[in-house]
Q: What sequence folds into this?
């Protein structure tokens, strides 16, 4: 079963009197434990696609099935619920709450999921340990380096054990060494069986994924397996049989 | 259920952080609410004080009393018509007293305004009430010393007096007034009784504390002659019987005055009800105006809160986007900002209330006031409500933000 099935999706924006087609008839399926990179130049529609895949936005037309559930015409609150339970976001600018420490930042999705405090703390703690920040639990974002901040953000994305991890230029604000570290974290997450969708315009970052989708002018230009993925190649077929 | 609770708790904790992070701003914003709540609490307290003073005054006058008088206390009639009424005389009083069956006590009164003096100290324009021994039965007087004058003293128009507490305090420093001779317009009266403080400043000169009581015969003899109209105080047997006592009084007075069936009453039966009505009319207007003005200051405070909440929402657009992306619903964001506004107002309200309590201790010197428990609850409720109402539009703006736009906001 695919986690994501989108069929002929378009997304229109009104810019003044003009209509801009950010996405123009995109169809796509992503299975469990895939590691997909979405690439394309700016204006290609990759951010729009990512917003729709992340249930932050809804398509103008077409269907979006998430775990076989129609999300294209859900209400805002239903979408919020899906984002909370099924999607973990990692952003280019980390997007942590500046006044909260790492633990509270990671706890936040669990608060919205209605999980009791003690259990919440334990889950958040485990997530922080798993990204190697067991000793930075009570640090605030401004007391952490960029790489550490992104690890907190990854822990936050992982803590609800979501169906997919959506990463939008996760290394965009990091130096290349730290960026590599973060990509190693993603590789590890993937190895543990998670599904990752990575949006990037850097070729060498996309190389980490084992499937690369290239967008141009709101359309899929190319969708191919990445045979020289950095870590042990894991094909869709292999993933589905459980490697 | 848990979920709402966690969200609310998160909202409150986070708003505390936000308030702490912007200390100066929060303080200035809160100031508006401090002033607003302080003035509302003070106004509520003052109104209560005035009401209480009035009630005390009424009960000092005697709650079950009627006053049969030439003059009505409140009327729409032309004054000259009333002025042309015949005076009420002692004969009218005697006749009425013999006819009436309902009253508990009946006494004539005759007021004059005199200078009272003792040993060089004096008070101008003191109300001197002449009456009979039964007068005391129409009042709730407590005596600090002595007694009311007796029937024999009253009938004999003796030169004896009962004095109110303020008179004693002003004229007799360190001297026991009992059995002393007080001069009332240069006539000496022996003090046979001193009243305890009755406490009703609202009654002005009619406050028993400020009066001197002498036999009515003495009033006529020394001060008024027979030219002046008397008034008759009637005390009903109980509050429930005030009405029937008044009805009987009207009938009996018509007889006592020899009125024919087609003649209008040429006297008035005054009741406290009229006094109450009049009080409620005047004070009611003052109350409304007062509450309106204090309400305005609260409104100014509320606008301040609304303004700062808009700023806060704008500043934290990114945060709202993050929260929405990781699963905060509309109501979560809404309640978070409402909690923040309510909390700022609650803190302001508490400070304002404390201020009001301190200030009311000062006011207590003039009016018997103190901030009551219900005022405290009122102030707290109003401050929370102010926060929720003034925070609603900003919070709603935050709640309905589009997560994509909010995340992109710099």
A:
């Amino acid at each position: 079963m695919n986690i994501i099935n989108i069929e002929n999706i378009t997304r229109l924006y009104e810019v003044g009197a003009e209509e801009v087609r950010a996405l123009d008839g995109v169809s796509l399926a992503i299975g469990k434990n895939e590691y997909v990179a979405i690439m394309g130049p700016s204006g290609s529609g990759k951010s729009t696609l990512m917003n729709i895949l992340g249930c932050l936005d809804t398509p103008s037309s077409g269907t979006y099935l998430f775990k076989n559930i129609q999300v294209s015409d859900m209400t805002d609150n239903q979408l919020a619920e899906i984002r909370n339970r099924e999607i973990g976001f990692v952003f280019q600018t980390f997007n942590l709450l500046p006044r909260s420490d790492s633990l509270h930042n990671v706890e936040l999705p669990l608060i919205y999921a209605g999980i009791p405090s003690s259990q919440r703390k334990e889950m958040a703690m485990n997530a922080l340990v798993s990204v190697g920040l067991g000793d930075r639990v009570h640090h605030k974002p401004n007391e952490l380096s960029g790489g550490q901040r992104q690890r907190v953000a990854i822990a936050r994305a992982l803590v609800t054990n979501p169906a997919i991890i959506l990463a939008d230029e996760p290394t965009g604000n990091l130096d290349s060494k730290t960026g590599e570290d973060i990509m190693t974290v993603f590789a590890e997450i993937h190895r543990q069986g998670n599904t990752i969708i990575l949006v990037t315009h850097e070729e060498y970052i996309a190389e980490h994924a084992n499937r690369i989708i290239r967008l141009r002018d709101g359309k899929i230009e190319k969708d191919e397996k990445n045979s020289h993925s950095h870590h042990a190649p894991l094909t869709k077929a292999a993933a589905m049989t459980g490697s | 259920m848990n979920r709402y609770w966690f969200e609310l708790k998160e909202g409150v904790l986070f708003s505390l952080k936000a308030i702490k992070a912007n200390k100066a701003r929060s303080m200035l914003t809160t100031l508006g609410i401090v002033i607003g709540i302080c003035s509302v609490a003070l106004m509520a307290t003052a109104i209560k004080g005035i009401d209480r003073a009035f009630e005390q005054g009424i009960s000092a006058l005697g709650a079950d009393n009627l006053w049969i008088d030439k003059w009505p206390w409140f009327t729409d009639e032309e004054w000259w018509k009333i002025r042309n009424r015949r005076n009420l005389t002692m004969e009218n009083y005697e006749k009425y007293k013999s006819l009436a069956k309902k009253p508990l006590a009946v006494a004539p009164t005759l007021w004059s305004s005199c200078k009272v003096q003792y040993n060089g100290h004096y008070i101008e324009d003191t109300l001197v009430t002449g009456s009979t021994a039964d007068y005391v039965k129409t009042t709730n007087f407590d005596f600090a010393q002595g007694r009311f004058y007796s029937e024999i003293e009253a009938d004999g128009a003796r030169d004896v007096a009962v004095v109110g507490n303020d008179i004693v305090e002003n004229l007799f420093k360190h001297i026991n007034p009992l059995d002393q001779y007080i001069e009332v317009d240069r006539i000496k009266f022996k003090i046979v009784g001193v009243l305890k403080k009755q406490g009703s400043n609202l009654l002005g000169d009619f406050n028993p504390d400020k009066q001197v009581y002498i036999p009515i015969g003495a009033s006529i003899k020394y001060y008024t002659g027979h030219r002046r109209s008397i008034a008759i105080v009637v005390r009903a047997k109980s509050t429930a019987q005030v009405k029937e006592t008044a009805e009987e009084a009207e009938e009996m007075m018509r007889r006592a005055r020899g009125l024919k069936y087609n003649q209008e009453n040429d006297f008035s039966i005054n009741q406290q009800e009229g006094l109450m009505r009049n009080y409620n009319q005047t004070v009611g207007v003052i109350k409304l105006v007062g509450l309106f003005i204090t309400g305005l200051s609260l409104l100014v405070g509320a606008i301040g809160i609304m303004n700062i909440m808009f700023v806060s929402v704008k500043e934290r657009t990114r945060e709202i986007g993050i929260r929405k992306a990781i699963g905060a619903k509309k109501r979560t964001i809404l309640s978070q900002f409402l909690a923040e506004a309510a909390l700022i107002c609650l803190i302001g309200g508490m400070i304002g209330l404390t201020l009001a309590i301190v200030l009311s201790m000062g006011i207590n010197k003039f009016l018997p006031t103190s901030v009551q428990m219900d005022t405290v609850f009122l102030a707290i409720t109003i401050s929370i409500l102010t926060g929720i109402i003034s925070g609603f539009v900003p919070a709603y703006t935050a709640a309905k933000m589009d997560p994509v736009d909010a995340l992109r906001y710099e």
User: Anything to note?
Assistant: The longest helix of chain B spans residues 272-315. Chain B has a mean pLDDT of 88. Residues 2-57+278-408 of chain B form one domain. Chain B touches chain A at residues 2-3, 6-7, 10, 14, 17-18, 21, 318-319, 321-332, 402-404, 407 (CB under 8 Å).
